[in-house]
Fold this protein.
Amino acid sequence: MGTAATEELAAQGKTRRTADRQSAASTGWPRLMPVLIAAQYIGLSPWVLEQYIADGTLTVIRPPRPRTPKAMRPRRSKGRKPSPPVGEHLRRVLIDREDLERLVDEWRDRA
């Protein structure tokens, strides 16, 4: 952003960070992303993001399992005993776009 754009934002009472978040929201990126899409968004490999998740640098969101009868019934397998659903949460791991932006801001502040 140039200085004219920054001055225009200041006149509207907005900061550059607010404008960046609003532009990210309007570009079509979802708020919650799986690891592969979050890696594309941030420009790193999925393995690096998984390392950040493992060491606690990046937090994840695990959606709760629905409480419907269909979701709670045991799964049927051919020739095997039915297995009950595992855990209170789904296995899907989602990352919040705002957490990714906060992480990049921390890197920017350190540099």
